[in-house]
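Justification of resources, computational component.

The compute hours requested in this renewal are based largely on the per-chain cost of generating structure records like the one below. Each record pairs the submitted sequence with a full structure-token output. That output is archived, and it is also reused by downstream analysis tasks.
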Amino acid sequence: MERETAAVTTKIPPAPSFGEPLPITKSAEVLAFLARRRSASAFTLSAPAPSEEEIADLLRLATRVPDHGKLAPWRFVILQGEAKAAIGDRLNALAQTRSDITKALASLGKFNAPPLAIVVVAHVVTPSDIPEWEQVLSAGAVCSTLVNAASAMGYGANWITDWYSSDEAAKAVIGVQPGERVAGMVYIGTASEAPLERVRPDVESLIRRP
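The structure output for this chain reads:
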């Protein structure tokens, strides 16, 4: 599958200076992108993955999310190359100890196939006047923005959680500390096939106007 080159896709503006005015402007291009945004299947993702420069850009974009109190209640674990493969082997060993061994092993295919996984870890900041729920929602916003930014760069991306996102032993293998939660495993790579449109909700049925 052909993809735009990194030289084209990584040309994003530099970070604005603190206090710099940021006018709200229309962007038909962004609206068109969101109208057709679609996650790629993790099983279709392979090399090449984003470069180190692109990863840095992705994380900078992903952290420009609503964050009540400016707490940054999230962090990242980047899994790629030999380190990712080694963690995959350890998760495979854990899967074989589970009662749902067949399902657990099958789900690891989503972990193993993509060349890059960015784990978004939610760590609630306490004490704080900001409700825990808002901090967790901010971590979810990071996941969503990360997927969108990777897609806008021309990569395939998918936000997934599975048993290894909640299993305490698996979380320790990945590098999640006690008390932290995995908001999402964001898998990124080059999609071998275009994702197909899926069923979307009837928006009008979800609206209530008092």
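The helical segments are 6-9, 28-35, 52-62, 81-95, 101-112, 132-152, 163-166, 168-174. The CA atoms of residues 73 and 124 lie 5 Å apart.
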